[in-house]
TrEMBL record:
Highest taxon, organism lineage: Bacteria
NCBIfam families (UniProt xref): transpos_ISL3 (NF033550)
Coiled-coil positions: none
InterPro entries assigned to the protein according to its UniProt record, in alphabetical order: Transpos_ISL3, Transposase_DDE, Transposase_HTH
Pfam family, one: DDE_Tnp_ISL3
Record lineage: Bacteria, Bacillati, Bacillota, Bacilli, Lactobacillales
Protein name (database record): Transposase
Domain Transposase IS204/IS1001/IS1096/IS1165 helix-turn-helix: 58-105
Organism: Granulicatella balaenopterae
Domain Transposase IS204/IS1001/IS1096/IS1165 DDE: 123-374
């Protein structure tokens, strides 16, 4: 029995609230043995003698004005976390895709922090979004320690991202100490404008990727230059491109094997030595780039700076020199990356899952629906994570 009238607040005493017939409704419940289940529910109506109003009894099975049970809501929310299309979820639970989309949008709204909190470490990146946004690219930022996405912004342009972060109070923005990103300069302007206490940390992977692209370019240039004069060597350069990009200290020099392009038994080190001898420019670039990659691998910021300075004494291709000048310009930010364990690796994994969701769903046309689906995919279930120490020095002590 109700304790009081929800409309006038009259306490239920001396039969002031009486029963007033029933209301029948059909409630969709979780499927049973892969078959739809519908509960025919009779809701008791009550009449208040004080205000002459009627109201209906409430149940924990289903929310007010809703015909889908709470347990089915929860199951659909869990299904939305997996990589599958909304239509598949709807067909599996015998509801419309509009219903599934409405549940996802409702859950995504619950994840909003309403510009009240930011972690000490942020990670910035972008991903290929829907066609209705500018340049089809959207901006995503996440907690750099727990790897949990915080929000997704429609536009990745600098002014748009700055306007978004300025919605956070200054006290909240001052809490951010580090921001990890790739070498996209507009994001650096965002950090300088919005986060007064934050230091920029450039992702180590993108630094190595930048170096490898330059090395690969001069390999292709060498291959094309001897394509007709020495076709056998050109095929070797084409086939063993991975060995040239592989770190020099990881090449095998004691495991010998046969290769149809080489005479006798060869090792990985033997192959690379031969390929480098084809072009002195390639050999010089290989030595400089591998020194820099070695410094990054062993987190030696001083050696990285020294090798960058030494590279100025050697004549290099214009595009390789441009790459080294870019690294020199961002040398302080790369130095932070060599001292700290922070990276953008988790965001790259998130972006990979986003691409998979988009492909499985055959694309999205509405940004808000796409954003809601992404947030539900990563924030529905809270998983325990082991937080890595902030610096490599702390990690070495714990090891």
């Amino acid at each position: 029995k109700p304790k009081c009238c929800p409309k006038c607040g009259c306490v239920n005493e001396n039969y002031s609230i009486t029963k007033h017939s029933f209301t029948k409704c059909s409630v969709k419940y979780n499927k049973i043995i892969n078959s739809p289940c519908i509960i025919n529910l009779k809701k008791q109506r009550f009449s208040c003698k004080e205000c002459k109003a009627t109201f209906i009894a409430e149940t924990s099975l289903v929310n007010k004005h809703c015909q889908i049970s709470n347990s089915l809501h929860a199951e659909i929310s869990q299904e939305a976390e997996r990589i599958q299309s909304i239509k598949d979820i709807a067909e599996r639970h015998y509801v419309s895709w509009h219903t599934v989309n409405r549940i996802i949008r409702k859950n995504a709204d619950a994840f909003n922090n309403y510009f009240s909190y930011l972690p000490e470490v942020l990670s910035f990146d972008e991903f290929k979004s829907v066609k209705c946004v500018t340049a089809s690219m959207s901006f995503i930022y996440a907690d750099g320690r727990t790897h949990e996405p915080i929000d997704i912004i429609r536009n990745r342009q600098q002014w748009y991202v700055i306007n978004h972060f300025l919605k956070y109070p200054l006290e909240v923005r001052k809490n951010v100490k580090y921001v990890t990103m790739d070498m996209y300069s507009p994001y650096m302007g965002v950090v300088e404008e919005c986060f007064p206490n934050a230091e920029i940390v450039i992702d180590r992977f993108h630094v190595v990727q930048h170096l490898n692209r330059s090395l690969n370019r001069i390999r292709i240039e060498t291959m094309n230059s001897i394509k007709y004069s020495r076709p056998s060597d050109a095929r070797k350069l084409k086939k063993d491109w991975k060995l040239i990009l592989k770190n020099e200290d990881e090449l095998s020099c004691d495991k010998y094997f046969t290769d149809r392009l080489y005479l006798g038994m060869v090792s990985e080190q033997t192959k690379v030595d031969y390929l480098l001898s084809l072009n002195p420019k390639l050999e010089q670039a290989y030595a400089i780039i591998n020194d820099l990659k070695y410094d990054i691998k062993h987190h030696d910021a001083d050696a990285f700076s020294f090798d960058l300075m030494e590279s100025k004494k050697i004549p290099l291709r214009k595009y390789i020199r441009s790459t080294l000048q870019t690294l020199e310009r961002y040398q302080d930010y790369i130095g932070n990356a060599l001292h700290l364990t922070l990276s953008n690796g988790h965001l790259e994994g998130i972006n990979n899952k986003i691409k998979t969701i988009k492909r499985v769903s055959y694309g999205y046309t509405n940004f808000d629906n796409f954003r809601a689906r992404i947030l539900c995919s990563f924030k529905t279930t809270v998983r325990p994570r082991t937080i890595r120490p902030l610096s490599f020095a702390e990690e070495a002590v714990q090891a």
